[in-house]
Design a protein that fits this description.
It comes from Actinomadura miaoliensis. The chain is α+β, with helices and mostly antiparallel strands and about 325 residues long. Helices cover about 60% and strands about 15% of the residues. It folds into two domains: about 110 residues; about 220 residues, Endonuclease, Chain A, CATH 3.30.870. β6 and β7 form a beta hairpin.
């Protein structure tokens, strides 16, 4: 009953208009009434309809205002949500970059000096390339070249070698290197010799001789040598599987970077760029000075002559013999 009363209160004008319209229609079917009554009834119906329209409009205005307020509030909320989503996306980007940086950092391993020899031996297995930048290349002569060339010859595949050592004809840089090595330790190193200007130059000459000697015995060896006019305290050994960065102290710690990581690629590009700026040794000219399995003093002198790497005029045959010995029988500085 209460529900009906509420409904009647909301729709009384429409109900009255309906009743009047029905009454007038019934009257019009045959009952004779004065025209004034009919006109009055019609006007009453029209008035009620107009009242109903005005009431509906009055009710619609607050509703429209409420809808506008709701839409405005929703727009503000959506703008705030958009800003939050943008912040979340930026945060996700920072997290992604951080994760990537941590992943990349995780592959830069630090090893102690006792592990360097083993890590380099693992790098030599099945590698088809070797890039080196460092001092005089003693370890290159003792291990890297003989073992990498031997593996490539057994497997009948090519081997790419790029070496950058200090220029033995540049007395200033050789003296700086020797002085640096003595400042680290004035005692003889693992080879049993102290570092002097004379030793530094002979070690570098020996690396050039060893490279040409191996090239003449293995045609699939693609080797290039650059002579640097500046010294470095670091040594870079880059193989197909990893990069090993060591110092001039075999007992010191070293860095190992696996291939496929950005730092490996960066160093590969850096080594190639550095080599391109160094003084190039024309290894291809070495064919004009054939070397025997046990090169003679004359053969060694001829080799340095045709490659344009002059030996000091003060070098005696004994000095040249020492260079040959260092080239083919170098001692491993890690042993």
């Amino acid at each position: 009953m209460t529900r009906f009363a509420l409904w009647l209160g909301k729709n009384a004008d429409a109900l009255i208009a309906l009743v009047l319209a029905v009454a007038v229609a019934v009257i019009g079917l045959g009952v004779r009434v004065p025209d004034e009554v009919t006109n009055s009834a019609i006007l009453a119906v029209i008035g009620l309809l107009a009242t109903s329209v005005l009431r509906d409009r009055a009710r619609r205005v607050p509703v429209e205002a409420e809808v506008r307020d709701t839409l405005r509030s929703s727009s503000t909320t959506l703008e705030g949500l958009s800003e939050r989503l943008a912040q979340i996306e930026r945060f996700e980007g920072v997290m992604s970059d951080t994760k990537r940086a941590l992943d990349e950092t995780a592959v830069v391993r630090v090893i102690d000096g006792a592990q360097v020899g083993q890590v380099l031996a693992e790098a030599r297995r099945d590698t088809d390339r070797w890039f080196f930048k460092g001092g005089t290349g003693t370890y290159i002569r003792a291990r890297t070249l003989p073992e990498c060339v031997g593996a490539a010859r057994r497997e009948r595949r090519t081997l790419l070698v790029r070496l950058e050592i200090i220029d033995p004809t540049n007395v200033t840089v050789c003296e700086s290197y020797a002085r640096h090595r003595r400042s680290v330790s004035d005692r003889p190193d693992a080879t049993g010799e102290p570092w002097t200007l004379d030793r530094t130059r002979k070690e570098a000459y020996a690396t050039i001789l060893a490279a040409c000697w191996h090239k003449q015995r293995f045609n699939m060896l693609d080797i290039d040598i650059g002579l640097s006019q500046t010294m470095t305290t670091l040594r870079y050994d880059l193989a197909a599987s990893r990069l090993v960065i060591t110092r001039d102290d075999p007992r010191g710690e070293a860095l190992v970077v696996d291939s496929g990581k950005f730092f490996y690629a960066w160093c590969a590009a850096e080594l190639q760029t550095s080599l391109d700026q160094a003084r190039r040794v024309p290894v291809e000219q070495a064919r004009l000075a054939p070397l025997d399995d046990e090169p003679t003093v004359e053969e060694a002198r001829k080799l340095f002559e045709v490659t344009g790497i002059e030996l000091p005029g003060s070098y005696t045959d004994r000095d040249v013999i020492e260079i040959i010995r260092k080239a083919l029988r170098a001692k491993d500085p890690y042993e």
